[in-house]
Here is the input.
Amino acid sequence: MSKIIGNSLPSIPWQDKPEGYKKPVWRYNSNPIIKRDATSISNSIFNSAVIPYKEGFAGVFRCDSRAVSMDIFAGFSEDGIHWNIEEKPITFLGDDQEILKREYRYDPRVCFIEDRYYITWCNGYHGPTIGVGYTFDFKTFYQLENAFLPYNRNGVLFPRKINGKYAMLSRPSDTGHTPFGDIFYSQSSDLEYWGHHRHVMSSYKGDASAWQGTKIGPGPIPIETDEGWLLIYHGVINTCNGFVYRVGSAILDLEEPWKVKYRSRYYILGPEEYYECVGDVPNVVFPCAALTDKDTGRIALYYGCADTVTGLAFTTVDELIQFTKEHTF
Here is the structure.
């Protein structure tokens, strides 16, 4: 039996696996949980991050407005399913006005480390880079230095220091709709200066796993288990009808996370339902957050659907690790 190394979360959103269902991840039967018009000005709400907070849950949400400007908003929920999202985007405080200038913000992740909630997101600064900030209460937010030079996307912190250093996964990119992309690992002593960059894994150039042949990128905060870091990530194939985004899984070494122990040949979730196939950007499932309960091994996965709405899916640490190990390459 695989074990999650983390906290108990008895209130984790959950539905049992449907009888006879054979895939490792199953959808919430009332998806999407957040529709595109959940705020008064939103065109779409997707690619967002949630985390346990007090007696319920909090999150940072990508809300593209009806002007189709991209920004991030705080939100709160009692059950992790029904969400109240703020009407105004997050305003960051900080010492350097150069960094506080907003171009755009999207695809956030939230990670609790030691005494605060860190937010990373794709931040506009002469091109996409990784913005870093933190909050204690999801009401007042502080912005730190951008982690990297442009161009970069999908900055995902690990939930604890590794060998005494903060650690982050990211996906170097370009200024456009990146037609390539590998995952890299970086570390920092102070969350300002990042180095010790190590390659983790590449897109797969071959027919054996073509769904992740164009680019890949880290998804939710890695889940610490007794088998290694369980990484849920997205993979992309370029088809005659454009990019298709699916979800895969990998297991990384606990103390040297740039070393991949296992990686799924088959995807664990792909666009099949109407709300995943039809929207502003069709054929996209994009994972950004996962809640976990160490007592039951349950995992609740939050993902963007067709760049329009937010979906919820479920699995367990046993199911996902077994699937990853059985179908590795």
About this structure: Residues 218 and 233 are 4 Å apart (CA to CA). The mean pLDDT is 97. The radius of gyration is 18 Å. The helical segments are 97-100, 274-277, 317-326.
